[in-house]
Amino acid sequence: MSLRDIAVRVEASPASRIGGIRPILHEIRTLLAALIDTGRGGSIDLRSLPLSPADFEALDAALGEGEVRATIRALGETRVTETAIHGVWRVTHCNDGGEAVADLIEVCDAPEILKTHAADARVGLAKLRTRLEPG
Amino acid sequence: MHEPETLGDVLAKRGVSRRGFLKYCATLASLMALPPSVAAQMADKLTRATRQSVIYLSFQECTGCLESLSRTHSPTLEGLLFDLISLDYQETLLAAAGHAAEEARANAMRANSGKFVLMVDGAIPLKDGGVYSTIAGRTNIEILKEAVPHAAAVIAVGTCSSFGGLPHANPNPTGAVSVGTLMEKGLIERKPLINVSGCPPIPVVISGVVAHFLTLGTLPELDGYGRPKVFFGDTIHDRCYRRPFYDQGKFAKTFDDEGARNGWCLYELGCKGPTTYNACATAKWNGGVSFPIESGHGCLGCSEPDFWDAGSFYAPLPAPRAPLSAAAGAAIAVGVAAGAAVGLAGLYKRKKAQQAHTKLTVDDLETEKKP
């Protein structure tokens, strides 16, 4: 049983809005412009910012949900979602219990974690070779 | 000759994919206030590193630190710490007992002499010859005297070994002291010492210190109390999501009033966040669920020296309500920019961001270490 299984949910009170999402949106705008101009975007670590639950909700509402949604199962779940702003991704890493341990905005063509690393591809190749062996 | 096993080899054997490890490094980078872009390079470096030998000694302690560290109820992501290190001796986790356990410690020390990291958990009693805490008939100070000279560095895990903690609290009946005090008094050999305080300390802070050591080959920069600045550089108050309410003068007066329900600042209920340096507000607890203030209770200040003797946990601090850092102060002045400015207060990021809006890399961090 994980903490997520507890039925009680804390509601984000509108009174706890801190109003810090506007600077984040400006930072995203700057990163997106850089991605278009130079091919290099960037990331924002949302957990390093003092945001209240209501601020997180406001940020999600401001960015919206886009065309891509992916789930990675590696040491717990990672949710990767493209927001309604193309090139702006929300990456949430969760542990085995389903609790978020890192929450990032990534401004890029595709988040690094979606790509297959060469080392993993080599493991895959070895696996496939074994499966193709006769007998 | 047999090639030493790299961390990458260990991870591959355990079936941890590169994505999984990248995720681990992303969480570490987040905690260490490093730019998220560093995670990929950190993962590269760490997979090529060999595992760090660690000997873990427990003295006057409650085992809460080890419990925090081992996170037995959620072993996977946080449990990767045990892949970063080779835990060669820890009496609670060791299968062996009695003479066999003591022999295992002696063997591990001999095999890794000069290279192992010594983790010490708990205070060390000195009164009456140190008889108040003994292992296999030997006092804690005797064991330390033997182990420290062979260690590459010492990590004091928890407030007891860092500052004396609860055993050291008034009237300190056993004459308990910290590892640092022993070094200052010349009772044990001086070695590079890192205090990872907290009652208990945040487990991922330990992983962060070890990852820093393996990635950069150096120990992290320390504050005046010997704590790694990447985790203890800001107060709880500086990084608290309730901080803007403090600045607006909105305080909970009781634990069940309107202010408490609206998540206002807990300063008047005795929160020690303004004088406590730790990473709880960003690293959080229970797998990132929350931290005490988020759960509605003020900070106790458990990572600070003598916090048990600092008066009631529920009495407000006498300190004036002044902005505690220039970065946060500037953020308050511009009002809406508070979130972004405090977020940028990460130590490395802060320095670099002031110079140019460019990405940081692990190489940049290494360059910073050089004079």
Please, could you describe this protein's structure?
The complex is a heterodimer of chains A (135) and B (371). Chain A is built from three helices and five strands. By secondary structure, chain A is of the alpha+beta class. Chain A has one domain (3-132): Ribosomal Protein S8, Chain: A, domain 1 (2-Layer Sandwich). In chain A, 37% of the residues are buried. Chain B has 20 helices and nine strands. Residues 72-76, 320-362 and 365-371 of chain B have low confidence and may be disordered. With 371 residues, chain B is α/β, with parallel strands linked by helices. Chain B has two domains: 7-231, NADH:ubiquinone oxidoreductase-like, 20kDa subunit (Rossmann fold, 3-Layer(aba) Sandwich), CATH 3.40.50; 235-345, Irregular (Cytochrome-c3 Hydrogenase, Chain A, domain 2), CATH 4.10.480.10. In chain B, helix 2 (18-31) packs across helix 3. In chain B, the strands form three sheets. Chain B has a five-stranded parallel β-sheet, sandwiched between helices. A two-stranded antiparallel sheet of chain B has the order 4-8. Chain B has a two-stranded antiparallel sheet with strand order 5-6. At the A-B interface, helix 1, strand 1, strand 5 and helix 3 of A face helix 2, helix 3 and helix 18 of B.
- Percentage of residues in helical conformation of chain A: 25-40%
Residue runs with pLDDT of under 50 for 5 or more positions of chain A? none
Contiguous runs where pLDDT drops below 50 for at least 5 residues of chain B: 72-76, 320-362, 365-371
CATH topology of chain A: Ribosomal Protein S8, Chain: A, domain 1
Beta-strand fraction estimate of chain A: 15-25%
Structural class by secondary-structure content of chain B: alpha/beta
Major sheet details of chain A: 5 strands, antiparallel
- As an assembly, this protein is heterodimer
Question: What is the radius of gyration of chain A?
Answer: 18 Å
CATH superfamily of the largest domain in chain B: NADH:ubiquinone oxidoreductase-like, 20kDa subunit
Structural class of chain A: alpha+beta
CATH architecture of the largest domain in chain B: 3-Layer(aba) Sandwich
Would you count the extended β strands of chain B for me? Answer: 9
Cα(first) to Cα(last) distance of chain B is 36 Å
The sequence of SSEs of chain A as H and E is: HEHEEEEH
Order of helices and strands of chain B: HHHEHHEHEEEEHEHHEHEHHHHHHHHHH
Q: If helices are DSSP runs of H or I spanning 4 or more residues, what is the number of helices of chain B?
A: 20
Largest interface: A-B, 46 and 54 residues
Q: Give the C-level CATH assignment of the largest domain in chain B.
A: Alpha Beta
Count up the domains of chain B: 2
CATH superfamily of chain A: HupH hydrogenase expression protein, C-terminal domain
